[in-house]
Write a structure and sequence with these properties.
Layout: E1 16-22, E2 31-37, H1 55-68, E3 71-77, H2 79-85, H3 87-100, E4 108-112, E5 123-126, H4 134-157, H5 163-166, H6 172-181, H7 192-201
Parallel strand pairs: 1-4, 4-5
Antiparallel strand pairs: 1-2, 2-3
Helix pairs in contact: 1-4, 2-3
Length: 204
């Protein structure tokens, strides 16, 4: 049997803050962003892109990150802000809030993706950074677990949509529920499938 080699992520300079988001694509719920500054004296094994981890592994690592990181913060942009600003600008806003909420100023901020918010911190965008940079991977895990928890709560409030299963993404089951029940207050009205349902409702 061939064993997979361990995933070794770049640690980055001291004072580095990693930033990532969760929830840009769904039709419902806020977009979350996390900012994490890791403590080099307390390394965390197993960090990688949250999408490549099981739910159990993400939860375990999220607990370790909260306990052992030098600083961390998770922030959001609401559905109303997404509809008002558009999803890109709302994501940038959530990232700004996350870094501002750290309680300490990072020396440098590395953001997953191909662009950074317009902010005062020295920063760079890192494409696929959540699988290359430990601090970004940690931010990916925190953003994903917090958003999943929120969508579970939303499922309890609006069980007809199945939010706990698809986390608000446009699955066939979610689209069918939208057609049957219409949009709830946590649906993004500026997103095409939701807008289509709302437009259809006005015809009757």
């Amino acid at each position: 049997m061939t064993l997979r080699p361990p995933v070794i992520l770049h640690v980055g300079p001291w004072g580095l803050c990693g930033v990532d988001e969760a929830g840009r694509g769904p039709l419902a719920g806020p977009v979350m962003a996390a900012a994490v500054m890791l403590d080099p004296a307390q390394p965390i094994d197993g960090l990688r892109d949250s999408k490549k981890l099981s739910a159990a592994a993400r939860e375990r690592l999220a607990g370790e990150i909260r306990l052992r990181a030098a600083a961390w913060c998770v922030a959001e942009a609401s559905v109303a802000e997404i509809d008002r600003l558009n999803i890109l600008h709302a994501t940038m806003l959530a990232m700004q809030r996350a870094v501002a909420g750290l309680g300490r100023a990072p020396d440098e901020v590395w953001v997953d993706g191909n662009r950074c918010p317009d902010w005062a911190w020295r920063s760079q965008a890192v494409v696929k950074g959540d699988d290359k940079v430990a601090a970004i991977a940690a931010a990916s895990i925190l953003a994903k677990t917090v958003r999943d928890q929120f969508m579970g709560t939303l499922h309890d409030e609006y069980p007809a949509y199945g939010f706990a299963r698809h986390m608000g993404y446009g699955t066939a089951a979610h689209l069918a529920a939208l057609q049957e029940h219409g949009a709830c207050p946590q649906h993004r009205r500026s997103f095409g499938p939701v807008k289509l349902v709302l437009d259809q409702a006005t015809l009757f």
